[in-house]
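During the reporting period the student researcher (J.K.) took over the structure-prediction task from the postdoctoral fellow and processed the backlog of single-chain submissions. One of the processed entries is reproduced below for the supervisory committee.
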Amino acid sequence: MHLTDFSLWLVIALFVTGFIWGVYALFNRKKTGPRPALVEYSRSFFPVILIVVLIRAFVVEPFRIPSGSMIPTLHVGDFILVNKFCYGLRLPVIHTKILNVGEPKRGQVVVFRYPRNPSVDYIKRIVGLPGDHVAYIDKQLYINGKLVPHYHKVPYIYAEQRGRFLEAYRYTEKLGKITHHIILIPGITQPPMHFVVPPHEYFVLGDNRDLSDDSRYWGYVPQRNLVGRAFLIWFSWNTAHGGGIDFKRIGRVIP
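J.K. obtained the following structure tokens:
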């Protein structure tokens, strides 16, 4: 999931409009008559931008899904909402935590800043918590030596971004208290992998297990990189069949 740092531009806009309005008000307290257009615009936009910044920084933020790494849970073209309060309050731009509210739980879908490039946001599912031993062998997931079974095998065909159709199988999986679906593609193999999750870090996987760029390839997600938990699809644009609103996906809760 790739996104530009829109929060930075919002903070800059907040500072500029607040500065213009504040300076004019400070030095023109006794002046009557119409204010310059730039001051009027700043006075009008400052409170709006302030509300948007506060909501995005501390409550909820929208994101768009640009890739298929979380299929079948999330599709390309889904627009989701992310709860930014559940893992603690952080200051915008610098991301410093100022209040601890809760910790991530196994199975939750999270948005985070990509460890190799923190200006880019990714979305995956938390599999390993700090201290866990995670193994991925023959497409089977093991946590602390125990197999995490997947069951209810169902054929699953979906359109890739380049237009070709891929044949896979959909399975049901349970991580912690969260039951969700994953897909596995026949013919794709991987060598056995073993990981021990360091303190204050997390191991994440995509639900599209064979076509996901995740912790198996670039490592762990530091706690400080977490943005929030994805919880709702509020809009969806079907990119697979010529475009159009996918009304069936709107309003779905993300497991």
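The committee noted the following: DSSP finds three helices and 16 strands in the chain.
J.K. will present the remaining backlog at the next meeting.
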